[in-house]
Amino acid sequence: QVQLVESGGGLVQAGGSLRLSCAASGATLSTYQMGWFRQAPGKEREFVGVILKSGGFTYYAASVKGRFTVSRDNGKNTVYLQMNSLRPEDTAVYYCAAARSVSTGYQHRGTYDFWGQGTQVTVSS
Question: What is the pLDDT of residues 19-33, one digit of tens each?
Fold first, then answer.
């Protein structure tokens, strides 16, 4: 059974940075497409970014492109989300997710097979 555990969330001022981590057990993350999603209060869970298992290509939502970076450390079996220039509208619970395939679209929640429990990120103005 694949288990994903996020960490690194917290409270930060606008303009600041945070790095979220997603550590896995029961699976080798390099064999999965790894995505990050977020969910703000009263809103649907939305795609943030993804790193593909082949070639390490990354893709991002327009709202975070240029500010957020997804990376992976295969030796540590961990995926990261580096968040810079944070804004109050980035406040949400952030989730990592693993997919065996993204043939149904990496932006879609239903594509992912396993999810972490989430970590809260709060950006104050």
Answer: 999 999 998 998 999
